[in-house]
Amino acid sequence: MTSTASQQELVQFLEDRFACAQACTECARTCALRASLVDPDAAEDQELVRRKGILCAEVCDTACRVLSEQGGMDEGAEAALRVQLEWTRSVCLECAQVFDRHPGAEDAAKACRACARACTDFMSTLD
Fold first, then answer.
1. How many angstroms separate the CA atoms of 64 and 53, rounded?
2. H-type helices in the chain, by residue range?
3. Radius of gyration over alpha carbons of the chain, in Å?
4. Mean pLDDT value across the chain
5. In angstroms, what CA-CA distances link 109 with 10, 11, 81?
6. Known Pfam families for this protein (predicted)?
7. Which residues contact 118 (CB under 8 A, 6 or more apart)?
8. pLDDT confidence bin for 1, thresholds 50/70/90
9. Separation of alpha carbons 69 and 98, rounded Å
10. In sequence order, what are the residues at sequence separation of 6 or more whose Cβ sits closer than 8 angstroms to the Cβ of residue 7?
11. Which terminus in the chain has less CB density within 10 A, N or C?
């Protein structure tokens, strides 16, 4: 039987994991939308927005799938999850910086930062 403290830790772990997956999903949706609004033959700076948006959407989508599918948390699974979340966090922050330079992309930058924060918060539960 598990103690109340360990039950609370498990609940918190699952809530943080779900919040991270939700943030990744929202970020992927927002970045994909932002990327779809850019003309593929646009100027170089707009092309950067499109490419970063697509990359961020793909990375966040992958993170969400990993968070959804992950079963038990043995040492190897935890390490792989940590690598995925760190990569997601890094790509989100980089993407947010690119979006910051483009009018109309404020919501996408905000979603990227929220996702990065959620990944950081969830990684802290893995310690």
1. 16
2. 4-36, 44-69, 75-100, 106-124
3. 16
4. 86
5. 31, 30, 24
6. Csp
7. 19, 20, 22, 23, 24
8. very low
9. 31
10. none
11. N
- Residue type for 93, please? L
Amino acid at position 11, single letter? V
d(CA 33, CA 111): 12
Residue whose pair of structure tokens reads 């779900």 in the numeric block? 18
- For residue range 34-85, what is the model confidence (pLDDT) as tens digits? 888 877 776 777 888 888 999 999 999 999 888 887 666 677 788 888 999 9
Q: Which residues contact 29 (CB under 8 A, 6 or more apart)?
A: 57
What does the longest C-alpha to C-alpha distance in the chain come to?
A: 62
Look up residue 36 and give its amino acid: S
